Each structure stands twice: as structure tokens, then as C-alpha cells.
Amino acid sequence: MDTNEFLPLVVQAQAGDREAFGQLVRAFEMTVFAIALRRLRNRAEAAELTQDVFIQALRKLPQLREADRFPGWLRQITVRLSINRAVRRPRAVTQDPELLGIINCERESPLDHVM
Q1: What burial class does residue 94 get, using C-beta atoms within 10 Å of its C-beta: 0-12 exposed, 13-18 middle, 19+ buried?
Q2: Fewest CB within 10 A of the end CB: N or C in the chain?
Q3: DSSP 91
Q4: How many domains does the chain have?
């Protein structure tokens, strides 16, 4: 979507037009999802983050002073939320008994050296 297409939609959305905002969501959702997926490397998290980005964009849209900067502004929201999510998510810990058994078998105990 080029500037001539999204600029009127941004202005209308800032004036409270939900349909215009919906068109912006449809136009930019794949871009937002791609950025989130690249950073999070998890499709489910990227999809959830995409929703969060547009919720935040809707809330903050009145603060956007230059409507022609909407794509970059939306990208910044996406990057910031992606970083926040990546930092806050818990590290994956395996609960697979087979893998845990392999890990425990590979460790030497002090008794192994005595015997």
C-alpha cells in the first residue's frame, strides 16, 4: 500500500473511523506478523503479538502527528513489543523424560572415578 492509499485511512482512523482502521490492519498485518515472527521465531507468539500491536496502535493513534509516518511508527511498535516479549518470556525447559535421562547419564559422578 503506497502513501496515497494509506494516508487518508490514517487520517480517518485518527478521527475515529473504525472501518478505516480495519483497512489499515488488513493492509499491514502481514508486515507486522513477519517482523514479529523474525524476532520471536514462534508463529503462535507472532500472531498474538500482531494483535497486541494493532491494539496499541489504535490506542496511540491520536498521538501520531505525521500520518505519512504510519508504516514506520507501526514497525517501531512491533519491534518494541517483540523485544519486550522476548525478554520477558520464560526460557524453555525440557520435561521430556527421555532427554532428561540422557542428560543425567552423561554426567560423571565423583564415585565413577573412585571405582
Answers
A1: exposed
A2: C
A3: P
A4: 1
pTM attached to this predicted model: 0.75
Residue 12: how many CB atoms within 10 A of its CB?
17
Q: Which residues contact 13 (CB under 8 A, 6 or more apart)?
A: 20, 21, 24, 58, 61
Distance CA 9, CA 2 (A): 11
Handedness of CA 14, 32, 53, 84 (dihedral sign): negative
Q: What is the mean pLDDT of residues 87-113?
A: 59
Question: Which domain range does residue 94 map to?
Answer: 3-114
Consecutive H or E run containing 60: helix 43-60
